[in-house]
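Input chain follows. Return structure tokens only.
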Amino acid sequence: MAFQKVNSQINQNKVQLAIMASGKGSNAEAIVKFSQKQEAHFEVALIVTNNPTAGVIDIAQQYGIDWYCLKSNQLQTEIEYEDCILKLFEKYQISMVALAGYLKLIPSKIIDTYPKRIFNIHPSLLPKYGGIGMYGSRVHKIVIENREQKSGSSVHIVERDYDTGEIICQKSIDIYEDDTAETLSERIQTLEYSIYAPTLNLQAEQILQGI
């Protein structure tokens, strides 16, 4: 476990958002950048990762955001894992959670504590190409192998099973004949950067309005 610092200055006029990520953090950075805009209804209070070498830690340090690394093998039970995250979220007054490439299933207790407040972005047009093991380049490779004409990205509410929650935003792009998993991934990542943070912002606005 690692802890950067404790941020005691919490803006009560904005929704406190936690980002959970396992990788380099490019989507996380796009969310952080959006949160700095005047029209943002949320601020990133905390970044949580399960990977001590994740690039998202560098993102947190770069922007001065508190971060926490929680490795599963340091906890004896799933209950300990759940309780650790929930206590952390309570400490930071978290009202909304954004998954940004977090490769661990969110425990049901956390989902039940934050109903319709945990969101994920998936690199396909759900319900197609979702589920266990469907992430990153694996998705794009299968999409191309199946000769799909379109792909895209979906923002959805997180439920107990992977990629099954209500879709709240979805955008598509054309697949070119010469596309590879790498080129398709690049274009879909750009799409994700443009839709995820604004979608989170709409959700945060509704929370502030008590909807």
